[in-house]
Amino acid sequence: MSNPLKDMDKPDTIFAIGTNMTECHPVAATGLKKALKKGAKLVVADPRKTRLAELAHLHLPIRVGSDVALLLAMAHVIVSEDLIDGQFINERTEGFEQFQSHLAEFTPEWASKICEVPAEDIRTAALWYSQAERGAIYYTLGITEHICGVDNVQSLCNLALLTGNLGKEGTGINPMRGQNNIQGAGDCGAVPANYPGFQPVEDPQFHEKFKNAYNQPELDLGQSMTKVTALNLAGDGIHAMLIDGENTVVTDPDRNHCQRALESLDHLVVIDIFLTETAQLADVVLPASAWGETDGVQANTERRVQRLRAAVTPHGDSKPDWWIISQIARELGVTGFDYQSAKDVFNELCSLSPIYAGLNWDNIGDGNYQWPVPEEGHPGTPILHEDEFKDAKPGLFKIIGYRDPAEVIDEKYPVWLTTGRRLQAYHTRTQTGRASGIDYLLSEETLEVHPEDAKQWELQDGGFVRMASRRGEVILKVETTTRSPRGTVFTSFSFAETNINVLTGSGYDPITQTAELKVCPVSLTPA
Amino acid sequence: MINEPNSTFASGPSIKIDGETIFFSEGETIYEVAKRLQKNIPTLCYDERLEAFGGCRLCVVSVEGIRNPVASCTTKATDGMVVQTAPPEIEKMRRTLLELVSSENRDTQPNPLSGFASQELSALVNKYGARNGRFQGAKSGTSNFKDANPFILRDYEQCISCYRCVRVCAEQEGDYAISVANRGFKTQITTEFDHDLRDSDCTFCGQCVQTCPTGALADKKALRSAELPEEIKKTRTVCPYCAVGCSIDLMTKGNKIVGAQPAMKGPANKGALCIKGQFTFDFIQHEDRLKKPLIKQADGTFKEVEWDEALKAAAKGFARAKAKYGRHSVYGIASGRAPHEAAYTMQKFIRAGFGTHHIDNCSRA
Amino acid sequence: MVIAENDLDLINRWKDEPAPLLPVLHAFHDRDGYLSDEALRTISKSLQIPLADLYGTVTFYHHLSRNPGGLKAPRVCTGNICCLHGAHDILQDLKDQGSEATEMPCSGRCDTYVPVLQGHQTLSGTTAQSLQAHPSPLPPDYPGSYQEALFAQIREPGRNSLKNYPFESLEKVLASTPTQIIETITASKLAGRGGAGFPTGLKWKAVADCDRHPKSIVCNADEGEPGCFKDRTLMDYDPFALIEGMIIAGYATGANRGFIYLRYEYPETNALLEKCLAECYQENLLGKDVLGSGFEFQLYLRRGAGAYICGEEGSLLNSLEGKHPFPRNKPPFPVTHGFEDKPTAVNNVETLCAVPKIIQNGPDWYQSLGLGEHAGTKLISLSGDILRPGNYEIPIGLPLKTLLYDWAGGPLEGRSIQAVTMAGLSGGFLGHQILDTLTLDDPCIRSHGSFLGAGGIMVFDDTRDMVKAAHDAMSFFAHESCGKCFPCRIGTQRLTERLGGEIKNLSPENWVTEVNEIGETMKTTSACGLGMAAPHITESLQKYFPEQVAKATQNAFQAP
To answer: Does B1 contact A368 at a Cβ distance shorter than 8 Å?
Structure first.
């Protein structure tokens, strides 16, 4: 997030796209609801009539995967109506002229045909966002889980650059991260392209730094590989894996492919708290201590670094992840794993990561800092890009064109499936599914189908549907509701019994290799 | 650092509270200023996160030049004001008010597991000796025990109509799931058409439970452990679900986790949680948890082993792969759910152990 | 959820006007005869009011029915005076006849016993068989030797037709500056006649001085105080005086819109005002360009739904805005933060009706109408055990004795006056001991611990049980307590129980201690006037009728 959570009640116009925030980030959504109470306008672009969409002054039920068209048309309106922030564009951006001429053809009428929403509504959304004193963009995986996820994000950046809605209180481009410490995993360097603190592995300077720090003369310069590639290469170049706390076969797209990949490894070690579907494929399963049993640190979506504290002793013989991984490293004779505590690990991270340089185990307290904290005594950075963008470079307008999703509906698969999450369940329910009482509210997975669609495909409310894609099929219960629009059905991936990721996996973003989990053409037949 | 306003002001307008002069900033209420002086003005309808309501009237103070005492929670401080927070006549009225409130409810002591603020009424009643049988008469509120939801107890016979629940639902959570039905002594907290919470706009975030000062709304899950003999211990940590990062106090009795409460000053949540953070802590000590390392045997079944054996087996497999296919044959996937220390050691394991960047996390799913 | 077309018509009629909730609720209530779940869902969605809030708010109002047929069910006034005239027998008879009759608190017709509200019609009679519609009574012919102001022309036939009402003051006003008007009203010493007595000129000036827009004039016509029915008479027989007063108030303060908040129990008045407003719009007296002056004034009629507390200005404003009608915390006051948080002058009907007269005859004239030091006149609604009940316009400062005996004929044959109430019920009782020396002005009445308030005086003769009268009065306050603040919500209940002898094991000494402690706490700490006023009942009961209290607490209240 470019702006802190506490800014969420401050915008005049909120543009929320691809985020089911009241269910996925309920506490953050309370900020938006407070903004509404103060009179803010809310525009929600989402195929479904989510709770957030119900609260909106304007709901754009765009066709799944048509975000870029919508955003191009909004930019078109902002430029053609001269609602741009000229001073901001002059002082802080680059490439405006080229972008302006690129936009000429992308009228709201053009987008209306692709997005299946009225041109007038697209125009209104653009006006509200650009005319606001403080316009803020919020998005989640509805933006990124597409083959054009990067295009989507950059299109949003274009809107913010056009209107100067960056670097100020109550504005910004604010992705809501999904998992409690997904931000932290990146901060810590658990990504292929970066060392801790987002220091690129391509950069010889950092290569040198970590070769020394990690006492590893063979360390590659560059040559990173994503998980998606690794799974594709399983058994064919990748032969051993260590997976920590991820139920890969249920959460990842194309379950069958994923399962085959893990099965073709020579050696799979899984660290987890439960014997998940993924752990069952492992050669060695190592029991980790859980939240509530483990001391540590995590970073939230606004880059706030906070302490986790153990309240009880670890279950059985389970051990903290860091201890387990360190022991394996020591067995292998790797040096530098003599940590005595989580504190030792965290302080080493701080010593190697410039954005954490001012932090240590003892001074982070109860979340006093949002990184970057470049040196001790620095107050932290609640708002990014306040005076300049990263590395003092100007904000670059990106020339983006609309692309269809990897698969589009056709005669055989005539219905769009989009997937998401539900309030009462977290991911694959390995945790929430084991909490007592949740079944009272959410006991099984259903497929949301518009009543008219149900009629068309001869489905009964409460009956079962066989839903098939090019990769597989599942059977699940039908819930007729106008929450999903005609021609689009929705379900979550929370229940392993009805694993919807058997169907997904039509394509990946070419840059991030994020899967297109939000779009999958399917067929529906009564089961 | 969090930029909290200075707790004291060096100059500006001032008021005199119980003889002590204190500066204040425009817009502060008498209650807020008095709080900075550590004055313990009693309240029941007050929650600092909510708009001041002025319902319980316990916070009345006397102000020189004003005939009747004023509610300090709703009255702004003005320059030169002279305030007495606890003159005997006001203390007497506080006691009468507390006696009146006691008289409309059952005589019970709410369990502290009920909710964060659940002890407020009983603490004041005890302090003022107000549970003494005076002012007897009809009881107010009808408990709704037929609502079978497993999370929120709705014991309205203990309700004192402070409306903190209704106000927190509207002002903080923004769900407007509950409201006030009827009026006067017949006032009753309700959902639309008096439906069960499940059939209302309630999202079971639990904020109403945590702000309830009497235990009328209570945490049913936590109360399952009411009989455990140990003291309640609270440990401040951060919610393990989404990335908002809500601060949370885990409640334990002995080595058992019995419940969760939001941290009222949590930087990301200011006392809010959602159903997941509030009510789904019990996976931690679930019987399905792995207790021991497992090694898969030839027949495909797992065998429980000691750490030593498991670590050796784990390491051996990586060593073998490296030997057979080279150092680029090993891949690590870190968790977006585990703490920094897990992710950091994981990437270091790959980079230091194999010299590659074959490391990723689950953010692509 | 799809909204039916005829539902949409009802909503669309109101939804672009300010303060739409009450009229929309009434539209559905009138059409269906009650408020169904479906109707509330539709309204919630259309007006974007959370359903739980809407449901809660609907249950707050006495007259909004949630059961089929509820609108038509007869409501029998069981106010203090009607109780003296057989209200409970009528109620029982109606029930015996198979109707779903229910009670309602004093409905402002203490000059025609016993009013029964049936749908949009007020019937009255002293038996269930004799119920029929009667015209709203005019004030009795002026019995005094002073001068009337508000009632001077009210008895002229046809006064409530536009053709007979000249709007001369308005023309005069439109030719002056707002400042001049405020100066005139200030000089007249006109003060709030709803009971609070705040100087009207000052209030208007405060609104005029505020430069936040849009401003509003709100007429408090929620005449809910038991024993008060003067505003009804003004609106029924001189409605254009009110409208003229409001336009003038708007002009003086810079408000371009006004609301009349009329109590539910005056359905005939509601119909008449609707008609009068329509005529005024037609004749350009209201609208975008009042009489071609360029001044805009839109006037909206809003009907309450049965809640005494809505006569409290904060509650009234919340009710208008469609919120739960709890009183607001003050400050800020409505003059700066009123309707929709914008500057608002809330004035009583009587106050506003006085305005055209003051403009017409000058401030000195009005001021001189009072006796001695006192300025102006006051309408008194006199009811109960008195020969000629009705509305009287008295010069402020008139001896009570004169009103009771010379003007209204004194008690019924062979009786003597035991007590009167003041301010309807809010001022409590004044005993026979002091009635001869009392003058009707606030300094004098306040010296006896009471106040004139809205001007309702109920008379109790020597046959009445004053403890029972006090119990009836406290039951009213308990029924109407909104529930916002602890002392009033619990206190009115506990005092009612004690006055009704419901608490059996209380010694007379403890009875007195508890009643006085509760009363003192309510008076001192309640959040609004209701809770502060209610203990006047118990206080004055003990002050003037200690022997009746002693008898009740020693005997009746001790029975097993």
So the answer is: yes
